[in-house]
Amino acid sequence: MVTLLLVGLIGTAVAAGYQKQATLDYTGIKITLDGKEITPTDANGAAVEPFAISGTTYLPVRAVANAFGLEVGWDQDTSTVTLDTPQIKKPTYITRTGSKYHNDPTCNGGTYWEVPYSTAVGMGLEPCDKCVH
Ligand SMILES: [Zn+2]
């Protein structure tokens, strides 16, 4: 994760047209969620220590987002960290006759019923191109 963060600090800065040098302050910063400590690690499981720059604390986004149950991605083309709720946890809507399932209960202006994601998939429905990401 430190790699992704450094890409964010250095690689993205290049893409945005500038570079900046900074002093990283490592002061033993800890992260807790509901009082339980999160130990950030990189993709290989090695510990990654949070740091601060000029009083702003930088946390490894993957560790924090995963603690919230989010999926983390990186879009190289747009230099965007993407955080997504796993599909299985999103509300899933279906119509009586549709071949797709939706996350937006107002998609296409139809009348939708909320069902468990597993039900929609079990019915053989495909994700809606418009509202399922
Ligand atoms: Zn839809």
TrEMBL record:
**Domain named Copper amine oxidase-like N-terminal: which ranges?**
47-85
Coiled-coil residues are none
Q: Where is the signal peptide?
A: 1-15
Q: Known InterPro entries for this protein?
A: Cu_amine_oxidase-like_N, Mao_N_sf
Report keywords, A-Z.
Signal
* Classification via Pfam families: Cu_amine_oxidN1
Is Signal one of the keywords UniProt gives this record? yes
- Specify whether Metal-binding is a keyword of the entry: no
Task: Give the protein name, as stated in the record.
Answer: Copper amine oxidase-like N-terminal domain-containing protein
Native species of this protein? Answer: Lawsonibacter hominis
